[in-house]
Design goal:
Helices cover 46% and strands 17% of the residues. By secondary structure, it is of the alpha+beta class. It folds into 2 domains: 27-47 and 131-282, 3-Layer(aba) Sandwich (Trna Endonuclease, Chain: A, domain 1); 58-123. The strands form 2 sheets. Strands 1-4-5-6-7-10-9-8 form an 8-stranded mixed beta sheet, sandwiched between helices. A two-stranded antiparallel sheet has the order 2-3. A hairpin with a 2-residue loop joins β5 and β6. It is globular. It starts with 8 loop residues before the first helix and ends with a helix.
């Protein structure tokens, strides 16, 4: 059998494209996102608001999407939005060198998100209230482009008890994924946000839910303890919050907490890998064997 490592870069690229094509074909054969939501009693009321979307025209979006992979560029965009009333180079050099920051400004000028204004710059479309909407768009694009998923972002439902936005929803074959996307650092996250996220998770009952923070700061210091406290409040025997790897944590293999350390895309791949492989992992197999043994002992 040929060694897969003998494949040329062109052959590997062709295989990746074929996998995406097959995944897209499989998606067309399974219920769409709307059907998965309807089965749970959810009907979309509003989605994908454009008022605060800081994204260029369609012809520039592929390149902009690639730029958004860079953590420093996303931090730069936050500062651009924060200082939109008086934007200068000096306002936005906290997270990159002057040379890199100047190149970012020139890039935004070239795709017509910025215009020159005196000695500084101004947003072509304003006001933009926050970076959050744009980050939701990016995560939805990432799932669509990299994983072949059907997506929706900024989704609102009319629910009698559980409200708020569902930041990103994605469909993989017949599985529903829900992502809560936070652009703020951990110090700006409060207990009420963890409570609201878990309320939405248990109401929607997706196959997988992700609490995603666009930061390279540690999750273990504040966010994980907040989840542990909320789970203790909800359950007599709360499920543990377990480290999967690095700053990626899991709760019952259904809920994941991740940050942007080592790239968002790689961390999301780790979550998806865990989701698809969880029934084959040793700890699951051992657990099933023990339960089966207990049932046999009880029967005899």
């Amino acid at each position: 059998m040929p060694d897969p490592e003998d494949k040329t870069p062109g052959e590997v690229d062709a295989l990746r494209k074929e996998v995406k094509r097959l995944r897209a074909a499989l998606n067309r054969m399974t219920p769409d996102l709307g059907a998965l939501l309807n089965r749970r009693g959810f009907v979309v009321y509003k989605k994908e608001p454009r008022d605060d979307l800081f994204v260029p025209a369609n012809r520039h979006r592929a390149g902009y999407y690639q730029m958004m992979h860079r953590y420093s560029f996303r931090l730069f965009l936050r500062d651009v939005i924060k200082h939109q009333d008086g934007l200068t180079l000096e306002n936005v050099i906290r997270y990159a060198t002057v040379t890199v920051t100047r190149s970012y400004l020139e890039y935004l000028l070239s795709i017509r998100l910025l215009r020159k204004k005196g000695e500084g710059y101004a947003l072509v479309k304003r006001p933009i209230r926050s970076f959050g909407t744009t980050l939701e768009w990016y995560i939805a694009e990432l799932f669509r482009r990299e994983f072949g998923a059907e997506t929706a972002w900024g989704v609102k439902f009319k629910r009698p008890k559980v409200g708020g936005d569902y930041d990103v929803l994605a469909r993989f074959e017949a599985s529903l994924f829900y992502l809560e996307v936070k652009s703020s650092p951990p110090k700006q996250i409060y207990d009420s946000e963890i409570e609201a996220f878990l309320d939405r998770v248990y109401d929607l009952s997706p196959e997988i839910a992700v609490f995603l923070m666009d930061t390279e700061l540690r999750m273990k210091d504040k966010i994980v303890p907040m989840f542990e406290q909320e789970l203790e409040r909800r359950f007599h025997v709360p499920p543990p919050v377990i480290r999967l790897e690095r700053e990626i944590f899991r709760i019952d293999d259904r809920i994941f907490i991740i940050n942007a350390k080592e790239e968002l895309l790689q961390n999301l791949k780790a979550v998806l890998s865990r989701h698809y492989r969880r029934d084959w992992l040793p700890e699951r197999s051992v657990g099933r064997a023990r339960r089966a043994g207990a049932r046999r002992s009880h029967a005899t």
